Amino acid sequence: DGWTFLAQICNLMIQLVIFKKLLLNPVKKVIAERKAKADSQIADAEKLRAEAEKEKMRGNLLRAVSHDIRTPLTSIVGGVSTLLDSGEQLSETTRTQLLENIRDESNWLVSVVENLLSVTRMTGEQTKLKKEMEAGEEVMSAAAMKIKKHYPDIDVSVRAPQELLMIPMDVILIEQVLINLMENAIQHGGTTTRVELQLRKEGNAARFEVADNGQGISREALPQLFKGYLPHDEAHTADGRRNMGIGLSVCMSIVQAHGGTMQAENRALGGALFSFTLPLEERSNENSGEDPGN
Prior knowledge:
The chain contains six helices and seven strands. By secondary structure, the chain is of the alpha+beta class.
C-alpha cells in the first residue's frame, strides 16, 4: 500500500508538471508577443521622433544660412565688378581693402559650406557616423594647427592629461566642432587674443573645453546659441560679422549624435567657455545622428 501511495503521488506530480507547462507556455508566449510588439512600437516612435528632429535641424540650418550665403556672394560680386570696371582709378589702399573683403567673404563661404557638408554627413539617408578610436589630444592639436594658419596673431594653446584618452568619434566631425568653437571665439569675442583648448577625463566621458579671453556672451544671446539662428542684433556684431548660431547649431548636432552634451557660459575672469563631452565607450544602442536636439 505504501508503494501504491508513493506511485500515486509521483503520478500526481507528473500531471501537475504537465498541467503547468500546458497552462504557462501559452501565457509566456502571449507575454513575449506583447512585449515584442510594445518594443517595436517604441522603436518606431523613436525613429519617427529622430527623423522629425533631423528635419527640424535641416530646416533651421537652411533658414539660417540662406541670408549668410547671399550676402557674401553679393559683396564678392560687387567687389570684383568694382575692381574690373574702375580698378585703375582706385587708390592702392582702396584696392587692397576690396581684395581683403573678397578674401574674408570667401573664407566665410568656405566655413558655411563645410558646416553644411558636416550636416549632410550626419543626416543623409542610411548614413552612420564613421566612428573610430582616436587620441583626443591629437584631434585638438590638428584643429589648433588649422586655426593658427588662418589666425596667426591669435595665441592658441592645447592642454591634455598625461593619460592618453582614446575616444570613439567621427574625427572629421569632432575636428569641425573644435574649429567652429575656436573661430566663434575669435570672430565674436570682440577682443579675443588667446584661445585655450583643454581635454580631461570625467568619469566615463571625455570633456573638451574651448575658452577665450574675449568679451564673453551677452545674456540675451545665451539661450539662443545652439538653435541655428540668433536675433538680428545679436547675430551681427558692430564689424558686420555674421550669425555665429549656424556653426554652434552644427556643433550641438554633431556632439549629440555622438551621445554627448554641450554647454556655454561666461568665465568669471572674462571671456567665454564652451565645453562638450563625448562618451569614452561606444553605446550599443546609439544611433548616429538620431539624438534629440537641445
